[in-house]
């Protein structure tokens, strides 16, 4: 069976992928449709790696066959066969498309009677392909940045556009000190892969320019590709406006009501405690910038609001600290940023106006 080459078609079709690497490798980065069904677990891989350094490749291969034999081998082949039968359109890969994927492919054929394609060059080639897709998009396509004060609804704008890149969704983080979600962020490499695949799919739909939110280099623990971040510093911008009252309500929806529900849904017993710890820790990150007196005042407001929310589910008291934090901390920062970016502004307006402008905009 001929090897598959890394291609847009693999990602456009959301091709199921059997990842034969060790779990520690998979955890550092994979692809959205990949499932980790390793040839060797972490311990076995470590032992084989040591043997390779000490006695060479042939001895390492022999040790690998000793470690993955008998019932262990049978169990792994059974798992691969189950995946392959469930996903006949899929493929498999290892790190570089070498021995591990060759052996996985051979055993699937000889022991389970399944001919299953593997990717030439493996994970490394697939990742290289995706990173080149980002570079190509930066060279060939246009971009517009959506800016605005904290809580103005930039993500709400992106959700109404067909050509948006929702960086915060790919990073599973809202981008601010309070932006952590109840579920964990993807590995930084996985974030890059999500971005690249989104670009590939949007380009396949015929889009040649993209809207994205104004972000710093880091979205939580996920870093924007350097070339993209550098490009964003000079991109044309639209500025989303909203009243402070509207922004307070949106933050209350997303960072209080919505976030507490996320935490409780994931952990009904301890979710509210985790949500409370999240808000308190996020405010604590700002203590040096707020100053001790202002921080303690906001902390008291937050703790009072959390106590009321825990008691009877009422979130109204959260508006006090949200409004104060916007007025005294975030708004002065964003006002300065808007002034510094004035030369790049294409348009400014309320949400419906900005969405209308972007839908009609042509670079």
UniProtKB/TrEMBL annotation:
PROSITE patterns: RHODANESE_3. CDD domains: RHOD_YbbB (cd01520). It is an enzyme of class 2 (transferase). Its EC number is 2.9.1.3. InterPro entries: AAA_SelU (IPR058840), Rhodanese-like_dom (IPR001763), Rhodanese-like_dom_sf (IPR036873), SelU (IPR017582). Keywords: Selenium, Transferase. The active site is at 94 (s-selanylcysteine intermediate). The keyword Zinc does not apply. Residues 11-135 form the Rhodanese domain. GO terms for biological process: tRNA wobble uridine modification. GO terms for molecular function: transferase activity, transferring alkyl or aryl (other than methyl) groups; tRNA 2-selenouridine synthase activity. It holds the Pfam family AAA_SelU. It catalyses: 5-methylaminomethyl-2-thiouridine(34) in tRNA + (2E)-geranyl diphosphate = 5-methylaminomethyl-S-(2E)-geranyl-thiouridine(34) in tRNA + diphosphate; 5-methylaminomethyl-2-thiouridine(34) in tRNA + selenophosphate + (2E)-geranyl diphosphate + H2O + H(+) = 5-methylaminomethyl-2-selenouridine(34) in tRNA + (2E)-thiogeraniol + phosphate + diphosphate; 5-methylaminomethyl-S-(2E)-geranyl-thiouridine(34) in tRNA + selenophosphate + H(+) = 5-methylaminomethyl-2-(Se-phospho)selenouridine(34) in tRNA + (2E)-thiogeraniol; 5-methylaminomethyl-2-(Se-phospho)selenouridine(34) in tRNA + H2O = 5-methylaminomethyl-2-selenouridine(34) in tRNA + phosphate. The keyword Ubl conjugation does not apply. Involved in the post-transcriptional modification of the uridine at the wobble position (U34) of tRNA(Lys), tRNA(Glu) and tRNA(Gln). Catalyzes the conversion of 2-thiouridine (S2U-RNA) to 2-selenouridine (Se2U-RNA). Acts in a two-step process involving geranylation of 2-thiouridine (S2U) to S-geranyl-2-thiouridine (geS2U) and subsequent selenation of the latter derivative to 2-selenouridine (Se2U) in the tRNA chain. Belongs to the SelU family. Monomer. PANTHER family: TRNA 2-SELENOURIDINE SYNTHASE (PTHR30401). This is tRNA 2-selenouridine synthase. It comes from Herbaspirillum aquaticum. The gene is selU.
């Amino acid at each position: 069976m001929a090897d598959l080459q890394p291609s847009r078609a693999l990602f456009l079709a959301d091709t199921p992928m059997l990842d034969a690497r060790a779990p520690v490798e998979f955890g550092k980065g994979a692809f959205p449709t990949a499932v980790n069904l390793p040839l060797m677990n972490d311990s076995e891989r470590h032992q084989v790696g040591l043997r390779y350094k000490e006695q060479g490749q042939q001895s390492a291969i022999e040790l690998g066959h000793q470690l993955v034999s008998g019932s262990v081998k049978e169990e792994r082949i059974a798992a691969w066969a189950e995946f392959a039968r469930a996903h006949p359109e899929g493929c498999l890969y290892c790190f570089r498309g070498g021995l591990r994927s060759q052996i996985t492919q051979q055993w699937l054929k000889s022991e389970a009677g399944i001919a299953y394609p593997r990717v030439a060059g493996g994970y490394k080639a697939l990742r290289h392909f995706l990173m080149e897709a980002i570079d190509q998009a930066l060279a060939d396509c246009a971009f517009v940045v959506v800016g605005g004060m904290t809580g103005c609804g930039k993500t709400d704008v992106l959700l109404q556009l067909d050509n948006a890149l929702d960086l915060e969704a790919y990073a599973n983080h809202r981008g601010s000190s309070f932006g952590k979600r109840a579920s964990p962020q993807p590995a930084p490499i996985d974030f890059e892969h999500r971005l690249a695949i989104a670009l590939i799919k949007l380009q396949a739909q015929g889009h040649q320019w993209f809207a994205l939110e104004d972000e710093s280099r880091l979205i939580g623990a996920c870093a924007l590709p350097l070339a993209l971040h550098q490009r964003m510093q000079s991109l044309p911008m639209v500025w989303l406006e909203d009243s402070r009252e509207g922004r307070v309500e949106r933050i209350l929806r997303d960072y209080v009501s919505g976030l507490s529900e996320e935490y409780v849904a994931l952990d009904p017993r301890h979710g509210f405690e985790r949500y409370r710890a999240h808000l308190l820790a996020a405010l604590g990150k700002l203590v040096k910038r707020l100053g001790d007196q202002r921080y303690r005042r906001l902390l008291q407001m937050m703790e009072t609001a959390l106590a009321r929310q825990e008691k009877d589910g009422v979130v109204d008291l959260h508006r006090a600290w949200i409004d104060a934090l916007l007025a005294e901390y975030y708004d002065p920062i964003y006002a300065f940023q808007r002034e510094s970016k004035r030369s790049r502004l294409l348009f400014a307006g309320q949400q419906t106006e900005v969405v209308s402008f972007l839908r009609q905009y042509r670079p």
